[in-house]
UniProtKB/TrEMBL annotation:
One of its GO terms (molecular function) is iron-sulfur cluster binding. InterPro entries: rSAM, rSAM_horseshoe, rSAM_sf. This is Radical SAM protein. It comes from Methanococcoides seepicolus. PANTHER family: PTHR43324, RADICAL SAM CORE DOMAIN-CONTAINING PROTEIN. Coiled coil: none annotated.
Amino acid sequence: MRAVIIDGYVDEPACFGVPPYISPYIRYIAGALREKGFLEHDIDYFTIDSLRTATPEDAQLLKKADIVVILSGMTVPGKYLRSSPITPGEIENLCTLASGIKVLGGPIRLGFSKEGGKGAKELGIDAEDTILAKSDIEAFVYDLFENGKLCDPEDISHRMRTVDEIGRWSKLGAFIIAQHPDYPHVMCEMETYRGCGRKVHCSFCTERFYGHSDHRPVADVIAEVSSLYDLGARNFRIGRQPDLLSYHAKDIGADVLQPSPDVLETLYSGIRKVAPELKVLHMDNTNPATMVAYPEQSLEILKTIVKYHTSGDIAALGIESADPAVVRANDLK
Ligand code: SF4
């Protein structure tokens, strides 16, 4: 059995996967396939930009693959310096070219938008025999195989992956970074948790669709960094979470979760231990409401980050508007 993973890129409020970044989804999908018996050399990975200049041999890989998995989803699209996300037309063309089973998924299931400021639209893709993974694509791909055989996609329920599953798949799928065009300078987007812990959610944001926050064990994140580092990765961004200050935060009944500074110290010191020669350790996403509600704990965490990170790091606060009327109307933080 052979598989091709096509990276059409993702850009979400709390996850980035446009080169030089590789999103966790790609590594999870590769790991899910590995756990179902695919060998590393059975799995080919292309970014959409590299496929645009594909050789005839690359096209043959696509034609011959038993399964082609296309990841896409620009829910908060931006302007990119040297990459262009996959278009609906390209998805249709690739699905026509591939003869095996085709699975499309990722944040694209929530809608499709070409650029920032434009609302996401329903998928209008004309590719009849392509299956849209309506929940987590990595879980759908995993469930598609049983005892080395492909199951009927109609029998597969669309579900979310578990934290335990991505703990395993992230390590098994780490090898795929070597196929990224920017390897070894690829930037690995790391997930600590997904799902926004706020009780109400900002009107524009898709993070609510991931449900309650599902925090990964610190040891799993460190183990994933270790696997990636052993395979040559030197650039990491802890970017896949809505608020890094709230990683393993406690619900003490207040509007805002109470941060856990010790957890961040364990995470950052652990990463430095397993990846002593890393070149980049950056972060993304902090919620200013956490800083206002818990200034002491937030400061402690920020000091921890400064102790271990590399230069050029930015704590993006994500303040959409300072206009009280706009904040109220859109439930902004
Ligand atoms: S605080 Fe708002 S923008 Fe940030 S993840 Fe939650 S809902 Fe989305």
